[in-house]
Amino acid sequence: MKKKPSLLERTRAYGFLLPCILIFAIFLFYPFFKTIFLSLYKTNKMGQAKLFVGIGNYMDLLTSSSFYNSLKVTLIFVVIVVVGSMAIGLLGAVLCNKAFPGIRAFSTAYALPMAIASSSAAMIFKIILHPSVGILNKLTGLNINWVSDPKYALVCVAILTAWLNSGINFLYFSAGLGNIDESIYERASVDGASPIQQFFHLTLPGLSPIMFYTLVVNIIQAFQSFGQVKILTQGGPGESTNLIVYSIYRDAFFNYRFGSAAAQSVILFVIVMILTLVMFKIEKKGVKY
Amino acid sequence: MSTLTLRNICKRYQNDNYAVKDFNLEISDQEFIIFVGPSGCGKSTTLRMIAGLEEISGGELWIDGELSNYLEPKERNLSMVFQNYALYPNMTVYDNMAFALKVRKMPKKQIDEKVQEAARILEIEHLLERYPKALSGGQKQRVAIGSAIVRNPKLFLMDEPLSNLDAKLRAQMRVELSKLHKELGTTMIYVTHDQTEAMTLGTRIVVMKAGEVSQVDSPQVLYQHPVNKFVAGFIGSPSMNFLDVSLYRGYDVENQKTYLTIEDHPVYLLEKTARLLKEKGYHRSKVTFGIRPEDIYTEEGKEANPKLEYSEAMQVTIIARELLGAEVMLYFDLEGIQFCARVEPENQTRAGEKLKVYFDLNRIHLFDMETEQTLNL
Ligand SMILES: Nc1ncnc2c1ncn2[C@@H]1O[C@H](COP(=O)(O)OP(=O)(O)OP(=O)(O)O)[C@@H](O)[C@H]1O
Ligand SMILES: [Mg+2]
């Protein structure tokens, strides 16, 4: 029989946990519950809850075309970012998986976006995409106002974000490739598989465990993109790049509608939560080895 | 159906040492070649160079009369069993075995037949749906063999394919491999540490030492006429007994016969042996004497084989006795070196008892002490 831990022991255990709990409580739990609380109220300009409206804020959102636009834009954005950043990361990792002279320089280049702040990257892109002095138009000979044209603005921001997020993916995939036993490629080449067949039959399946994790992290990260929108497009032109996170920011700090912003936050949280849970469910079924 | 020629094949890694040096071998169609040698002597490296997995640093590799140094592995059309199995972890046993056929776009039905047949031979039919992670070492090894034999390549390369099986299964697989070789008639190169496999399977054995070929010959010749002390000691189990002795040429004893002494007993050499030694200029010098355990006879053994030529009786004290089923090993010291003799199982000599032993003079091996080359060949 195990003895029940004495009161002292139990208190001591909680004592050790206390700093952690405290920090979580202040920076995570309190804001979280406060957000839910605020989403049920109309607020004054100081962000203080003034009038209880129940699910009124949510009802407003669900009837607002602007919010639906935000959702749609966010969805397109997330798809482009996730696919793009994973593709770039994977490509870089596969290319850098062989030892060759200068490998370190290449690896650093591929991992670099990780170290760049999104806002400074956005500043650089702003110059690159500038309609008259930008190098992109200069090189391609096109005359497109990339970030001010509703057709291109979202794609531009998304590609920038994809590139920014690709750095960490490169690291994940490099680690994943490192885990694949080199000798199975030798056997495959003796077996007569071409490099492309080897990629699809061995490399991709070999990455599948880390692929899933990377996917989840990427989706969450993509939903939270903010800095690049703020600097590059401010949600415009029109509302073509008004991602939910940016819309929350605008509602809260420009329009002082904290209640609505809080409600959007909660909806964003729910969406990400559901997506994550669904993916974990799928993963459980898909695990093969 | 293929021939293979290795001409001065060398392998150097970044450091200047040769992993394989001046490997010369001519393999004709349908041969079963065995590579043996101590760990790290370059067996796998040679095999991998033939497969195209390792760059050949020097020399020429000819497959079917075609210079193949720079062919891609898949263009060589070989099939290989890797020392570490190299199974695809993301595929079931079935898919592992079918992979080489799938990438060659063989019809599904035909693939299935081949895989089932191989699985039956290797007794892994019940494992087909499993992933490699869920297999034991021996099972993995059989899957690896299966993946190789479903194909019909020019050449089989097998790197210690049976090393992880238990004795019974190993004997069984040995028979299967030999059968397979007869049926398919495909040329095989086979690496092993197992003496029995080497002696029974091979049409020729290549003995390697430190990256160089010591001797290439049929198992029989290799066993009876090793070219140097290394081959003599490496082939055969338990291995040959060695002793450094002095060679004399008697002036007053027995018609000037050449003899060597072991613990002050003279062992008179046969006339032909003496002549060979003399031709090579080895009288009155120190040489290494070697004799296999089964060429040492007791009194009873001697009487049972009256036709052989024996040395004078030598009195020894047995220090240990080992019963190995059908035979008995007796151990004794000569000049401080332990000797092993394989004697008939009826022999009841115990440790501590004295025994008279005789050497079969036709089976004595003599080696130069410096070069270790065989002198009486
Ligand atoms: N990549 C490498 N770089 C440097 N040296 C190597 C490399 N691979 C093998 N070697 C060396 O080459 C020599 C031959 O190795 P090899 O694997 O062919 O031995 P082996 O005969 O197959 O041994 P075993 O019976 O243990 O499998 C060894 O001394 C080994 O240390
Ligand atoms: Mg080896």
Description:
The complex is a heterodimer of chains A (289) and B (377). Chain A has a single domain (56-286), classed as MetI-like (MetI-like fold), CATH 1.10.3720. Chain A contains twelve helices and two strands; from the N terminus they run H-E-E-H-H-H-H-H-H-H-H-H-H-H. In chain A, strands 1-2 form a two-stranded antiparallel sheet. Chain A is an all-alpha fold and 289 residues long. In chain A, helix 3 runs antiparallel to helix 9 (195-223), helix 5 (118-128) crosses helix 7 (150-178) and helix 9 runs antiparallel to helix 12. In chain A, 72% of the residues lie in helices and 2% in strands. Chain B has two domains: 4-234, P-loop containing nucleotide triphosphate hydrolases (Rossmann fold), CATH 3.40.50.300; 241-368, OB fold (Dihydrolipoamide Acetyltransferase, E2P) (Beta Barrel), CATH 2.40.50. With 377 residues, chain B is an alpha+beta fold. In chain B, the strands form four sheets. Chain B has a six-stranded mixed β-sheet, sandwiched between helices. In chain B, a hairpin with an 8-residue loop joins strand 11 and strand 12. The structure holds adenosine-5'-triphosphate and magnesium ion (MG).
What's the gyration radius of chain A in Å?
24 Å
Oligomer kind: heterodimer
Shape call of chain B: elongated
Q: Report the radius of gyration of chain B as a whole number of Å.
A: 25 Å
Distance linking N and C termini of chain B: 35 Å
SS element count, helices of chain B:
11
Going by CATH, the homologous superfamily of the largest domain in chain B would be: P-loop containing nucleotide triphosphate hydrolases
User: Helices and strands of chain A: which structural class?
Assistant: mainly alpha
Strand order of the largest sheet of chain B: 6-7-8-3-9-10
- The number of strands of chain A is 2
- Characterize the biggest β-sheet of chain A: 2 strands, antiparallel
Terminus-to-terminus distance of chain A? 39 Å
The main sheet of chain A orders its strands as 1-2
| Largest sheet: number of strands, sense, barrel closure of chain B | 6 strands, mixed
Q: What ligand species are in this complex?
A: adenosine-5'-triphosphate, magnesium ion
- Helix/strand class of chain B: alpha+beta
What is the CATH topology of the largest domain in chain B?
Rossmann fold
Number of structural domains of chain A? 1
Q: Would you state the CATH class of chain A?
A: Mainly Alpha
